[in-house]
Amino acid sequence: MDDEKTCNDPCPIARSLAFLGDSWSILILRDAHAGLTRFDQFRKSLGIAPTMLTRRLATLTEEGLLEKRRYSEHPPREEYLLTDAGRDFLPVLFMIGAWGRQYRGGGKLVRFLDAETGTEIKAVAVDEVTGAKIGTRPMRMVTPDEAEP
Amino acid sequence: MDDEKTCNDPCPIARSLAFLGDSWSILILRDAHAGLTRFDQFRKSLGIAPTMLTRRLATLTEEGLLEKRRYSEHPPREEYLLTDAGRDFLPVLFMIGAWGRQYRGGGKLVRFLDAETGTEIKAVAVDEVTGAKIGTRPMRMVTPDEAEP
DNA sequence: GGTGTTACTATCAAATTGAAACTAACAATA
DNA sequence: TATTGTTAGTTTCAATTTGATAGTAACACC
User: Which of residues 72-101 of A touch B (CB under 8 A)?
Assistant: First the structure.
């Protein structure tokens, strides 16, 4: 796979995965969206080893998905907040969840309701232009090196 | 994290990740959607070690995302085809790609065009009921153990 | 008989991960 | 003042996973 620092793969999926293709990172982002901000909250929620958590939080911070904020000077204490890039990961989380709900959905699952209408949220990916569900219309891949000198 | 065989985490994201939270698996699925079916095609496309590829293909097959089909009896040769569950992973791939395009998008990237309209496909996740983009309306999480005896 | 193709397996060093214990810097309590 | 608790980590080390390379099996083709 491509090196993390210099991923110039023309595939946008590979670009994403080069940074957060790891389960822990995605689960940390999930928990951050659920409102967790502190080291011990993540550690307890995930059952992750502190070494791993330290490293993953550092990576997510370096990559601009989380930002570290000092919330206490004495003693020095940091918390981790979602950045815009981190918040924009929510649709990805929902789509991963939608797939899991459909194909790995035995037993009780967490659900999300629209706060106004009270209906259960069912995430689907659509093309912003045509409005069609992704995968329901024929499409054409264009590689970036087409028609180059 | 939960054991792969007995994931009963009530979070649908964790359910998904228990099986394909690995970059190689996702890249294999990407290539499978691009039309690759054979061991050597995947190996060359990904630059993956054959040991890894063997294991990942086996897991994806066991988990029902790919199916093995014998395409030659003499010599015995197998290919790997997407199942329904595998095909339904396409929206997830598009959302991962959409995020990567926005936040890791320097340089030339592969694009997808609607074959009919010729417009570039831009995947967005919406709620199937309200049609609102995921994350733009307040929502409420419901855990499965609420109001239990 | 020799070369090429395809789908692997075997081997082993290197890197990553997980588990457990420990530390620093304080606050609160007795 | 001593003890306990909290938070955010670090240290250490064994176990697992990964990556790189080479090799194999079963053929087809020339």
Answer: 85, 87-101
In this structure, is the CB of residue A38 within 7 Å of any atom belonging to strand D?
yes
Instruction: Give the separation between CA B112 and CA A137, rounded to whole angstroms.
Output: 12
Domain residue ranges in chain A:
12-89
Backbone angles phi, psi at A14, to 5 degrees: -60, -40
Q: Which pLDDT tens digit goes with each residue over A21-58? A: 899 999 999 999 999 999 999 999 999 999 999 999 99
- Could you give the ipTM of this predicted complex? 0.91
Confidence class of residue A6 from pLDDT cuts 50, 70 and 90? low
Q: Tell me what pLDDT residue B6 has.
A: 57
**Exposed (0-12), middle (13-18) or buried (19+): which is B73, by Cβ within 10 Å?**
exposed
Q: Find chain A residues with C-beta within 8 A of B4's C-beta.
A: none
Closest CA to A25 of A49, A56, A65, A69: A56
- Chain A contact for B53 (CB, 8 A cutoff): no
B50 part of contact set with chain A, CB < 8 Å: no
For B138, nearest residue in chain A (alpha carbons): A115
CATH number of A12-89: 1.10.10.10
Annotation: CATH topology of B19-84: Arc Repressor Mutant, subunit A (1.10.10)
Contact A31/B at CB under 8 A: no
pTM of the model: 0.92
